[in-house]
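Lecture 7 notes: from sequence to structure.
We start with the chain below.
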Amino acid sequence: MIGILRVPAGMFAADDEAAARKRREIAERLKKGQEVSVTNTGEVVTPNDPKADGDSSLAIPPGKLAASFYWYERDPELFEAERTVMKMKQPGFKLEKLDDGRLCWIGEVNPRGSNGGTWTLQVIYDHNHPHNDTFGGSIKVYSIKPTLEDLIKELGELPHILRDTAGYLHICTARAADVNVGRVQTSAATCIGWAVKWIWMVEAWMHGEFGKEIFDHDYI
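Predicted structure tokens for the same chain:
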């Protein structure tokens, strides 16, 4: 018999608040022009800190039950597959663990090169990844720098964004058709790819190169 994992009410809201605190911590360092390193315990440190030594991999404790709350412990093969694909497709992103146990990747993208800016992204897996139970799927892509909230203040609006349970904005990186049918297994590398396309189009729109019709595509 498969046991039912019951999640206490409000747990995910607390998770999103924890993730938001981490983003603010990193954003403060970025605003000061400091380099940022993330240890494999999820702590943000300066690059010369001894804690920054070593690679960015996370060791999964042995002997965990299959009914573990964390997806990467329930399905270590999927976890290894995620790390392998990210190493190939997005080697500049580093893996970290949030205080609430969720895994996320942090890295920079610059879709338009010298014609655009560098965005710092945080890509967070839901506790029960993979799923398509909520619109947007089980991986959320947040922008640490610039923040989506600041961009909306500047532009008045942004297309194809969602809010998490704590009200923070993230980029919608799953096609509507994929979410509706619930058959597509999301991956961090794929979500970053969609986020890069979204950023490219947002910057083109901001620079007046295209109208809002540029967002009228089936990818989302």
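Points to note: The longest strand covers residues 103-109. Residues 1-7, 56-67 have pLDDT under 50 and may be disordered.
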